[in-house]
Amino acid sequence: MASVSSTAPVAGSKASARAHSGVAPLRAGQGHSFFWRRLHSLSGIFPIGAFLVEHFFSNAFATNGAAAYNENVRFLTGLPFVFFLELFFIWIPIAYHAGYGFYIWYRGETNVGDYPWTGNWLYTTQRWTGAIAFFYMGWHVWSMRFNGVHLLTNSAAAFWKVQNEFHHPWAVAFYFVGIIAASWHFGYGLWLFAAKWGFFTGESARRKFGVVCLLVAVVFITVGTATMVAFLTSPQVAPPAEISTGAQIP
């Protein structure tokens, strides 16, 4: 076998010492950084991703009419220990995932203009869709849970409340943008999770799974759009009696 000459510095030489002194021993993150990044990746799939699947499916009950949607909201809000389920499986994971995601974005450098490669574009879209989805969820929670009728104790007003909000064109547009952002962020997040955790190591396998993840995002966008159309095209639902008579609803 023919030998191949190398100009690499000999171990122990000054050149080698200079090279190693400037290279981090763990490029994926030193110390606890590697753990927090893995936890950030995992939390995006479970429990946040699982909740996203459930939320899209539950909202799709609107395609079966107001009664079916309200009944599903009544079932979900009537689960035992619903406050603690939301706290530990929704709010705390979302707060961590979003907070650490913004931290990663802050520590990173945007170079998509200098290096317009596919990977850079995907990284940029993942950061922006995550930010849009985060602010969309914040507005959605405020408008559905803390503004006006409280759906935890008045599930019969659920369909009416969403339908009434869709009277504002800007709300419809924001919902649609939020659905696209959340769907893309979850779809590409699935691919990143599989790549980071070593489920797919070959280039061909990663490419094929990328197509699957793209289809997942398309399915989510389709379901979300169909749900919006159901609220927009259904006959106007009358407000609950407590609202129409002017009674106070907690």
What descriptors fit this protein?
250 residues, mainly alpha, single chain, 10 helices
Short description:
By secondary structure, the chain is mainly alpha-helical.
Describe this structure in words.
The chain has a single domain (31-238), classed as Up-down Bundle (3 helical TM bundles of succinate and fumarate reductases). The protein is built from 10 helices and no strands. The protein has helices at residues 14-21, 33-45, 48-59, 66-77, 82-107, 118-146, 158-165, 169-196, 203-233, 241-244. Mean pLDDT is 83; it is low at 1-29 and 245-250.
Along the chain, the helix and strand elements come as: HHHHHHHHHH
**Rg over CA atoms:** 24 Å
* CATH topology-level fold name: 3 helical TM bundles of succinate and fumarate reductases
Helix content: 55-70%
* Mean pLDDT figure: 83
Oligomer: single chain
Give the termini separation.
Answer: 83 Å
Largest sheet: none
Secondary structure class reads mainly alpha
Q: What's the count of strands?
A: 0
User: In CATH's first tier, which class applies?
Assistant: Mainly Alpha
CATH superfamily: Fumarate reductase/succinate dehydrogenase, transmembrane subunit
In total, how many domains does the architecture comprise?
Answer: 1
Write down the overall geometry. globular
Proportion of strand residues: under 5%
